[in-house]
């Protein structure tokens, strides 16, 4: 009996050691999950009574989102909230005119972390501590980034959300892909509340390109882009053969004029080509909805046109819905179907360009 208890304690200890290793792996690296991580995640599933059910869901999600955003930490914590009990992504064909609905959407940014940082700085300078303590206690109010936005977007459209720096457009992008969950109001994808969607189902249907992506440099372009296939695969089985993967990746690379770079390391690429590679990974994911936050950064004029034309082709020929955050209307207005203007957290205009005359379009 005593021997059994000792064995149980050893198993429990190993179980938590493995879990700690997994958490360390997630927090210390980008979410590009390699074979080593997959192996240990499977081992964790064997030790944990729930692991066999849980491990496939975070695994399908981590490859899709960058760890470069502060909000991603909250997203990882959300993975533990029984994602397998949440619903599947609805059929977008049934809600053509209401793919995405934002109802009374508001979001506040808490200044508490900043105040803690300031307190640390103050304490480290003891000679100033007594003088600034009163100022610190007068805490600044939270910043209202998004203010009561009501918006309805149709599917199979190329939509641009534009605004000046700090207007709140990137915050909207993070909310609709569930990187920020402490918002007020409703976010409905195809009629279903965002928070009710499972992580795996979400990753299979929505691809997201953040404004800043952290990537491994010691990986080939082919392998990096192939990460986009992960959400479509099972825990152990592969729905797509390696040959088919390579064929699809090369097709996307050709469309983005990167086929000559296919076997190179990411380390050898210019900033513009790295950005196109990140876009290629999102495209290869096969999602019908692509959300892009400032995807044209670091690109020259020729590459910008190439990317915009490729996205337009996906929308027109493959039924993709494109939602792009951008700051310059003139660069995108000839490609988009709808224009949303955000200023200081408010929705200023929602323009359907098909209803405009040529003179009105030029005036935008």
TrEMBL record:
Residues 127-364 form the ABC transporter domain. Keywords: ATP-binding, Nucleotide-binding, Transport. It comes from the Bacteria. The keyword ATP-binding applies. Pfam families: ABC_tran. GO terms for molecular function: ATP binding; ATP hydrolysis activity. InterPro entries: AAA+_ATPase, ABC_transporter-like_ATP-bd, Metal_Ion_Import_ABC, P-loop_NTPase. Belongs to the ABC transporter superfamily. PANTHER family: METAL TRANSPORT SYSTEM ATP-BINDING PROTEIN TM_0124-RELATED. This is Iron (III) dicitrate transport ATP-binding protein FecE.
């Amino acid at each position: 009996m005593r021997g059994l208890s000792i064995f149980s304690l050893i198993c429990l200890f190993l179980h938590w050691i493995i879990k700690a290793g997994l958490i360390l792996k997630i927090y210390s690296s980008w979410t590009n999950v390699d074979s080593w991580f997959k192996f240990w995640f499977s081992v964790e599933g064997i030790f944990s009574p729930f692991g066999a059910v849980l491990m496939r869901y975070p695994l399908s999600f981590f490859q899709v989102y960058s760890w470069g955003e502060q909000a991603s930490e909250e997203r990882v914590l959300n993975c533990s909230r029984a994602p397998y009990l949440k619903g599947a992504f609805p059929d977008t064909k049934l809600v053509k005119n209401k793919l995405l609905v934002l109802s009374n959407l508001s979001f506040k940014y808490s200044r508490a972390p900043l105040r803690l940082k300031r307190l640390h700085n103050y304490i480290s300078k003891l000679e100033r501590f007594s003088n600034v303590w009163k100022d610190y206690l007068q805490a600044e109010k939270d910043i209202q980034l998004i203010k009561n936005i009501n918006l309805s977007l149709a599917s199979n459209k190329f939509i641009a959300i534009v605004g000046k720096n700090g207007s709140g457009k990137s915050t909207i992008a993070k909310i609709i892909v569930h990187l920020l969950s402490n918002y007020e109001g409703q976010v409905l994808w195809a009629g279903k509340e965002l928070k009710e969607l499972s992580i795996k189902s979400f990753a299979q249907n929505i691809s997201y390109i953040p404004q800043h992506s952290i990537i491994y440099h010691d990986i080939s372009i082919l392998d990096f882009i192939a990460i986009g296939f992960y959400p479509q695969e099972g825990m152990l089985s592969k729905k797509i053969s390696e040959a088919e993967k390579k064929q699809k990746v090369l097709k996307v690379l050709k469309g983005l004029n990167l086929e000559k770079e296919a076997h190179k390391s990411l380390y050898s690429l210019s900033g513009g080509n790295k950005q196109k590679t990140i876009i290629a990974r999102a495209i290869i994911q096969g999602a019908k909805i692509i959300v892009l936050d400032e995807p044209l950064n670091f690109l020259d004029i020729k590459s910008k046109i190439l990317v915009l034309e490729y996205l337009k082709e996906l929308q027109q020929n493959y039924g993709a819905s494109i939602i792009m955050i951008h700051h310059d209307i003139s660069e995108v207005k000839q490609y988009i179907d709808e224009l949303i203007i955000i200023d200081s957290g408010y929705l200023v205009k929602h323009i359907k360009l098909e209803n405009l005359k040529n003179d009105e379009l030029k005036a935008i």
